[in-house]
Backbone:
């Protein structure tokens, strides 16, 4: 199946918004751009279907930035440029640089999620632990990373009525994503555990523990 050609749209005087046909294309394009950042690129901000490329126009004019993005599209998403290919994204191997997050798997929704999926709670936890996750983008709240994985087999519905209070560090599932709440907030994800990791620290550099492109593995916390 061929991919749609990404659209490049101006976003003010110092950014380009790239519209892609899905999250896989965003991830591949983000990786390609991040490997070869020219001087003048300020930030790459991926989302579910878009990638914002922020630049300093004094060092990198917008047209030059657009040409750089177009070259990356041709190289990273050849099926979009040529109309060929199946659009599949190769699974990346585990890396020593993967972030390891300890989780206490006693979440309020663990049993209900497992029952909905037709598996045991132990099986669900084991799959979550065995999966190599990747930060696709940051959203919802500062430091809230949307984690994806090619081999994660489950699609988990959100709560019909969101909780008014989710504790910081709560680890949850929603759709094909996993994630952890960096601070107390409302939320509709199904909670399967909790971590003590500092997911957001405004005094740290960077303040977010999870950054787009980072590999993540979960490890069961021992009491």
Residues:
């Amino acid at each position: 199946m061929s991919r749609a050609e990404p659209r490049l749209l101006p976003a003010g005087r110092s950014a380009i918004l790239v519209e892609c046909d899905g999250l896989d294309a965003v991830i591949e394009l983000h990786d390609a751009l991040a490997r070869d950042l020219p001087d003048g690129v300020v930030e790459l901000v991926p989302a579910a279907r878009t990638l914002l490329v922020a630049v300093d126009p004094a060092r990198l004019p917008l047209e030059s930035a657009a040409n750089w993005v177009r070259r990356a599209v041709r190289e990273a998403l050849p099926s979009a440029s040529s109309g060929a290919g199946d659009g599949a994204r190769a699974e990346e191997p585990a890396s020593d640089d993967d972030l390891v997050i300890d989780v206490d798997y006693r979440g309020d929704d663990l049993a209900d999620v497992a029952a909905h999926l037709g598996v045991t709670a132990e099986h669900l936890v084991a799959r979550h632990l065995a999966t190599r996750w990747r930060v696709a983008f940051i959203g919802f709240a500062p430091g809230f990373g949307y984690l994806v994985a090619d081999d994660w087999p489950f699609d988990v519905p959100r709560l019909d009525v969101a909780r008014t209070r989710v504790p910081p560090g709560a680890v949850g599932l929603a759709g094909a994503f996993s994630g952890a709440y960096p601070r107390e907030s409302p939320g509709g994800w199904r909670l399967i555990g909790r971590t003590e990791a500092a997911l957001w620290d405004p005094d740290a550099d960077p303040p977010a523990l999870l950054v787009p492109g980072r590999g993540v593995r979960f490890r069961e916390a021992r009491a």
Q: What stands out?
A: Helices lie at 23-34, 62-76, 78-82, 110-117, 121-130. The radius of gyration is 19 Å. Confidence is low (pLDDT under 50) at residues 82-90.
